[in-house]
Amino acid sequence: MLTFDNVSKRYPTGYEALKQVSFHLDPGEMAFLTGHSGAGKSTLLKLIPVIEQATSGQVLFKGINLNRISRQRISYIRRRIGVVFQDNQLLFDRTVFDNVALPLVILGMRHTDIKRRVRAALDKVGLSGKENRQPITLSTGEQQRVGIARAVVNRPEILLADEPTGNLDPELAVEIMQLFELFHQLGVTVLIVSHDLALIRMLNKRTLRLNEGQLVQTV
Amino acid sequence: MKVNSSKQCSSPVNTTKAKEKKTAQASHTRPGLAALMRGWVYHHAQTFFASLGRLSRSPMSSLLTAGVIGIALAMPASLFVGLQNAHQLTAGWRGAAQISAFLKQGLPAEQATALAQQWQNDPRVASLELVTPEQGLEEFRDLSGFGVALDALDANPLPAALLIRMAPGQDDPVKVAALADELKQHDAIDQVVLDLKWVERLYAIMQIAQRGVLVVGGLLAIAVLLIIGNTIRLEIENRRDEIKIIKLIGATDSFIRRPFLYEGLWFGMLGGILASLLVNAGLWLLQEPAGRLVDLYGSSFTVHTLDPMTIILVIGCGALLGLSGAWLAVARHISDIEPG
Hints:
The complex is a heterodimer.
Chain A: E1 2-10, E2 16-25, E3 30-34, H1 41-47, E4 56-61, E5 64-65, H2 71-78, E6 81-84, H3 96-107, H4 111-124, H5 140-152, E7 158-162, H6 170-185, E8 189-193, H7 197-203, E9 206-211, E10 214-218
Parallel strand pairs in A: 3-8, 3-9, 6-7, 7-8
Antiparallel strand pairs in A: 1-2, 1-4, 4-5, 9-10
Chain B: H1 2-10, H2 15-24, H3 33-57, H4 59-94, E1 98-103, H5 109-120, E2 125-131, H6 133-144, H7 147-151, E3 161-166, H8 173-185, E4 189-194, H9 197-238, H10 240-249, H11 253-296, H12 308-333
Antiparallel strand pairs in B: 1-3, 1-4, 2-3
């Protein structure tokens, strides 16, 4: 599903965020990526939806080399990847429904299908009945759930999350993590960046640890 | 492009990949060409109205922008309609383009009549009048007030003359001059006089005015282009974060461009509608005093307002300029915004 082969990332400023990182994720696998802040977790994650590109080495998503990809095709790759952000990145001038529907609108899906899929996604994250709410009227945990619903609504092949529980209190964090585990059980490949070691231990999944840009340990 | 790339994405390169595909997401299906086309048309239709909806959510600023565009479009439109009115007014005068051909002194009357008949049959001639020396003398005596002096002459000094009016469509200065030249070649014709100077001057003035309308229109079109371009650029800047998010979800540049392009189109169209209203309101205000002036000259001229074709033209020009202005903005700014 996802292969990093000797990947290094050096920013134009000269800062080397990743140093020869190699790992592989199997389809349907769930894994955590951890490490102290500045270890390169976010940089690694950004290479997958081609927000950044590696300076050397190869990032392969289902056999597609993401280093050698045309601008036009990046959009189509991103449609196959669901991303959840720490700060949810919702559009606050639209309803919950419109936020979740966005990936489907981009795909050009028919309105009736969009309705069905959005309802199903909101149902899965436990927000059914709130589709007409404005995101600002929801709690932080609920906003994060809207973000997750948006990330999974077009049934991506891989789900990425960057500190999805970073802004949440412990109980809510557990609930959100359980949600990711649910999608993993449904067959989605999941990669979560987190430094909440207690939570990671609780879920007992494969853990990749970065230290100053190097992959030091995979459990 | 869409179909091509999604095909590339899904084509298995090796067996492990094919296996991956099967296990990953059985429900993940790629849309076919028909579905893509339908989606594309659907999104266009949806964006068309959604962008109007967006404008209506901030009515004051939308109206101000449309107003500025409307005034910019109203100026060339009113010059154009003014020119149309001038054409209509001068059409009545141009019929007066007349050639006077003076025949040789002492030409027998039969020959003069034959000559008159010959030219009467020319398709370029609308009407021809033969003025005999006697008629000419009578007229001159009546109009000039030199009656007594004329009595002192022994013989009639005046030649016979042909007064020729040009047929409609044949009355522009070049054609009139050509006919005059032909007349001049004739042995029996002594002299050809045509009062072309004023026709030529009128023509020249009209041409300057026409060119002026083009120049002013061109400049104001550029102004409209820049106004809309700048409005859309600001709008893109306001929605920078939103564009980043949508790009990250997999929207192509063209998908993101679309609402901005439609917004430009709407601004242009609304501007065109406002311009038509402004010009017609102005002309309506002019109608009464102009009518009074025209009455004093005993003319049947009436001020013409914008006809439906011109209104469609003005709105169409506005729409085109709006779209082009928006295009200028999106082409430069949307691809610069990247998530990260």
